[in-house]
Amino acid sequence: MREVARQSVEQLSSHANVAPQLLRSGADPKNDLLQSEVQLANGTQSLVRADNELEMARARFNTVLRRDINMPVKVEDILTHQTFAPDINECLKTAMETARR
Hints:
Elements lengths: L1 H24 L4 H35 L23 H13 L1
């Protein structure tokens, strides 16, 4: 979410920088300039919110692990897809054997 918010602010900032030039040239009405400024402010607020949520998630993660809440956290994606080979009959047989114990 933070990366999406950052990209949005970057895009809105570019538009906000071009809007005054368009207004001066007469190609863009003042309403469009104001709208782009509002969108940039909202995008910046979303980025700040995403940054805060990221820091809170890191602090909660460290709390769960009983570490200092300010300890750096590096998330690494280690998810790999593994197919489940046994068929349904093997699974039912294992379930029935386990239930009898």
